[in-house]
Amino acid sequence: MPNQDYTATISVDQSPKEAFDAIRNVRGWWSEEIEGSTAKIGDEFKYHYQDAHTCTMKLVELVPGKRVAWLVTDNYFSFTEDKTEWKGTKVVFDIAKNGNKTEIHFTHEGLVPAYECYNICSDAWGSYIRGSLKSLIATGKGSPNAKESVEKV
Question: Is the residue at 58 inside a domain?
């Protein structure tokens, strides 16, 4: 049976180092509300989007200019029967030179079509990777989720 993990690949003119640095700038392309450190192996950070999704990621691989990988250590979805669907999955960015371009191959290992969130999650990842991350690498400006404003009553 072929591998069914969600993948997306982008190609940019920038160097593998520039792509690596942009991927590690998680607040610059995924969410301005990332809490915690995203710098070194063993670091953990939390992501949340409104009341729909929260997760904790642990940085498990860091090979400068080549690879970044996070392990999902905790997850909550408000919209799925299994609230912890991502728990134990791995998010991997492989970076390689291809001619005069740099390719970033994104894989969410364990995010498969059998998951209830697959369609929503793969659409979201596609937007973040093909849109926001690619833009951050190419122009220095991504389009991450903005900080939510807290209204005071």
Answer: yes
